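Recap slide: DASH complex subunit DAD1, sequence and predicted structure.
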Amino acid sequence: MSTTTRATAATANGAGGAPEKSFFELQREILVSEIAQSLEHVLQNINKLNRSLEEVIAVGNEFSPVEALWSQFENVMAKDPEGEAEGGEQGVQEGEEEGEEHGK
């Protein structure tokens, strides 16, 4: 209330200066200042997160040749089981025949 009295007194005396700010205006300025600082802090943290994500992506991109090599290896191995299955069955039959000979 004292700020309103001072503002009224200043205008009544004919002082052409800006009237003093009310409690509401002072609190609003304080809150706006705090919000601006918080937003600046959020912006800094978002920038840090962005840099971290860029580093992770860069590291991931370094592994793309290794991934391509493993994919090629997987494709080669996927073709061989059909050929190995036939060869594997022959090996099992030969092993059984040898077992029969040793058992006699």
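The chain has one domain: 23-103.
The two ends are 117 Å apart (CA to CA).
(End of recap.)
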